[in-house]
Amino acid sequence: LYKVHNQKRGPFHAGHRALLYKYFDKRLADMIHKDEVTSAAKHDVGVIDGDPLYDAQDMEIKNFAIGQASVENGKAKVPVTFENLGDKKTLIFTLVNSSSGWRISDIDYGEGRTLVGEFKDTE
Description:
Blueprint: H1 2-6, H2 17-23, H3 26-41, E1 61-66, E2 70-72, E3 75-84, E4 87-98, E5 101-110, E6 113-114, H4 115-120
Antiparallel strand pairs: 1-3, 2-3, 3-4, 4-5, 5-6
């Protein structure tokens, strides 16, 4: 996901709906797609107003690493660490195993913030 995202071919652009379902579970993919469509129609910034894979608008990424997954109760948690503009960050990706394979169901940004929570705040 990070590889295609960094090559500007990732799922966070209108018209890449199929890629959303390749990486995210249906619930989160639907939320992201709806946000893209709604914000484009309104010519406005949506819920995702920065880069959700780095939790930032401006980026100078260093020391990027994907950690070891821990699996419990059918869910995997995968830490991603990096430095951005001198700040150390750790994001925790939660994945669920579906009939299509492992898919991201949420991203925990720390301090009680999650990607799904960002969408729920706008409902």
